[in-house]
Specification:
25 strands; six-stranded parallel β-sheet; single chain
């Protein structure tokens, strides 16, 4: 069984209902579940100020809620997501599953985003910077946005770096 980080309180914190990481030089999460956590930003987890890109692998984010942004996860820096599930997370504003703020890049490899929703942009992901990210073998299914980007909203139209999508599937997003 995987360890689970749960919260039964309406809003446990303003940032990272299950876990808030600030200024950590190295963060590796492997085989963890974040289920039913709630916060204003980063319903399950929030990461900022770290010098290294956190590596999140074989992690499940399910049924988490953020009143403002990042139903499951908020990151203000580079990030590596590998074999990670985002299922049924919600945001009252933007980024149903993941809000990537700031200019760092991220790798999303063999991840699954399904049934996530936001009242605003980015049913699954809201990428504020749109800076040179890579998505590999990732599935976006049945995610819903109240405005733009049922699966993915990429901001910063002035960005000159390329976002890459390799062997990804987008299905039934609205």
């Amino acid at each position: 069984n995987l360890p689970a980080i749960n919260s039964q309180t309406i809003l446990v914190s303003s940032w990272g209902g299950g876990l808030y990481v600030y200024n950590s030089p190295t963060l590796v999460l492997n085989y963890i579940q974040f289920i039913g956590n709630k916060a204003s930003t980063g319903g399950a987890m929030a990461v900022s100020g770290s010098s290294d890109a956190p590596k999140i692998e074989n992690v499940a984010f399910a049924q988490n809620y953020a009143a403002q942004a990042g139903g499951a996860l908020y990151s203000a820096q580079s990030l590596s997501l590998v074999s990670t599930l985002f299922l049924g997370n919600k945001s009252g504003s933007i980024a149903g599953a993941l809000l990537k703020a700031g200019g760092g890049v991220f790798l999303v490899d063999r991840c699954f985003f399904a049934g996530n929703s936001s009242a605003g942009d980015g049913g699954a992901i809201y990428d504020q910077s749109g800076v040179g990210n890579t998505y590999i073998n990732t599935v976006f299914s049945a995610n819903q946005s109240g405005n733009k980007g049922g699966a993915l909203f990429i901001g910063n139209i002035f960005n000159t770096r390329t976002n890459s999508f390799i062997n990804c599937t987008f299905s039934g997003n609205t």
